[in-house]
Amino acid sequence: MKGIVFTELMEMVESQFGIEMVDRIIQPQELVSKGVFTSVGTYPFSDLVSILGHLSQATGAGIPELEKAFGQYLAGRFSKLYLPFFQRVNSVFELLNEVDSYIHIEVKKLYPDAELPQFDTIKMDSAHIEMIYRSQRKMFPFAEGLIDASATYYQQKVKIKVLEWNHDGAEVRFLVESLG
Ligand code: HEM
């Protein structure tokens, strides 16, 4: 996992719960990174799992719920940090269509060691698209949060339904409906 994922998660936790919560959920002895992250570094996915687990214990929120909230937060940050990706297109559906075919390809050029999911996007009609998420990291609630909050940049709203859930979440089919 790229360091930006960790540094942004720490920012989110600090702004929502305060710096004490950051100290509580980082258990350096459990982490390969020892809890020291830079945005350009790369750290094991297991470190993210450990941090989210402690955040879940400390807040009482479930891990899927936390992942979704983090995806929502990160979409807002990406729309500032990587504004040109959002500006290239005029709607959330066009953006979603480009995640696999353009955005993540560019991300991979910037960060060759990035571990990215795979998406198949199928447009059904002007108000519905399906996205099939595939990743061994099973971060589909994170994907859901990113999809949901990416719409905000275009002043759009979407409703997301999980149509199919396979291989313990390594393959998830979403229906995204544009509510205008
Ligand atoms: C400008 C927009 C975007 C940028 C710059 C971006 C960049 C990234 C980066 C840097 C990572 C981390 C890779 C790693 O840690 O090794 C990532 C992961 C991920 N991205 Fe994107 N992304 C963007 C938009 C999206 C959108 C709209 C979606 C949802 C459809 C999405 C879905 C995901 C998911 C689910 C992961 C987690 C890794 C996994 O599940 O295997 N991304 N992305």
Distance linking N and C termini: 34 Å
CATH architecture of the largest domain: Alpha-Beta Complex
- Topology-level CATH name of the largest domain: H-NOX domain
Overall domain count: 2
How does the major sheet shape up?
A: 4 strands, antiparallel
How large is the count of helical segments?
7
Strand content: 15-25%
Query: Which small compounds were modeled alongside the protein?
Result: protoporphyrin IX containing FE
**Percent in helix:** 40-55%
Low-confidence stretches: none
Topology:
Elements: H1 3-17, H2 19-25, H3 45-59, H4 63-81, H5 83-87, H6 92-110, E1 118-125, E2 128-134, H7 140-153, E3 158-166, E4 171-178
Antiparallel strand pairs: 1-2, 2-4, 3-4
Helix pairs in contact: 1-2, 1-4, 4-7, 6-7
The structure holds protoporphyrin IX containing FE (HEM).
Protoporphyrin IX containing FE binds at residues 1-2, 4-5, 78, 82, 85, 96, 99, 103-104, 107, 114-117, 135, 137, 139, 142-143, 146-147, 150.
